[in-house]
Design brief:
Blueprint lengths: L2 H22 L17 H29 L1 H20 L4 H11 L5 H11 L5 H52 L20 H5 L2 H30 L7 H23 L2 H22 L5 H29 L5 H30 L1 H22 L5 E7 L6 H12 L3 E7 L4 E7 L5 H11 L3
Antiparallel strand pairs: 1-3, 2-3
Helix pairs in contact: 1-5, 1-6, 2-3, 2-4, 2-5, 2-12, 3-4, 3-5, 3-6, 6-9, 8-11, 8-12, 8-13, 9-11, 10-11, 10-13, 12-13
Amino acid sequence: MTGLEIRATASVSFLYMVRMFGLFMVIPVLPLAADAYAGATIALMGLAVGVYGLSQGLLQIPFGLLSDRIGRKPVIYLGLALFIAGSALAAWAETIGWLIAARLLQGCGAIAGTLLALMGDLTRVNMRTVAMAFVGISIGVSFGLSLIAGPWFNTLIGLPGVFLLNAGLGAVGMVVVAVFVPTPTARRVNLDNAVIPADILQLATRPDIAALCVSILLAHHLLMSGFLAFPRLLVEVGYTVDVHHYIYLGLLAGTFVLMGPVMRLGANPRFTKHVLLSVIALAAGSLAALSGQASGVGVLLTMGGFFMAFNLLEVVLPAQLTRAAPAGRRGTAAGLFSAAQFGGVFTGGAVGGLLIQTWGNAALLYVNAGCAVLWFGLVMWGLTVRDVSGRVIEIADPTSDHAHSLVNALLSIEGIDDVVFVEAEGMAYLKIDNAHFVEDRLERLLAQSGAT
């Protein structure tokens, strides 16, 4: 990677971490803070937890499209400003209504799609996979750190201090954008990142894409609604709030160690569906068992099982989406996937809080286990996993007849299922069936044509 690409990757990864901290730092502590807000009920606290996802989900695609018109950096500044304003408002909120409004505003900093587009503008085609791997690592690390840091900072500076800390991180993010993020000289048409509005409905109705979007929605629904119950269950079995960060640290560390072999198995398309079904079954079993636990050890073991299932899903589902997305449609599929993810954040908080208020923690956990059983059926019968991959080729002279002949030649190679050619950018997006693909034929063709 060049120095510019390293700066871009590090900066975008940090901005992703700011976004993740804004969502997850308060999740382990907010459900226990109802007494701090006038008019609060368990249901309304659940809404305060989840409403962040509503604005995030609704604004992801519009913000990405806006960045195509006015530039990446202005949209990122706007998103961070909204995030900072929402965090500050949440810090000074005294009523549940103000807290919900603040969380809604905080979620309006929906810059994930714009950050992906910026990454595409600042990295070469052959470096984007490496850059996105760093972004993925930053997301996973920030998720784990935020669950640990939230309870820890809550004991030190209180919940208002946690919100102010988020605002401070947003301000640091603005400095990072101004000082470290390179300004793109041109906005590229990168179909691996760009959302094409005309393709949204077509992709949303594809069974495999729909199954994956519903899967990520349910995964985050179960996580967010589960966190309305988890802190309460820990308190009920004798773990005071000031030790919760140690518990989350131990659970996450343990699950990360155990999930390594399963991740490697899930990366193999022959076993991906089996791994998904096993992980969903683990989530269902853990939630059902957790509902009847009265001992501290039992609660920790069942929570650990659920965390392991969720962390595996966070790895396997995006990887499968990359495989399933048609050539040149990965960005649109990712936009739908992200919107569904935040939809699950919203429904998990809103519906979970209502269930706990009406019937209690056990009812919520049983309902969630039932949702996981239905989800198991959806994946069993609605998801087909093929050993496919994507590849992007740069064509030296995209306006020539030779370029169009090259596209036809690519389609004639066995194992290349689809080719989408963007003449304006000189890019050809390939969808490859690895079971029948012969790499040597493609390499010979590229060598003869001068493409890379």
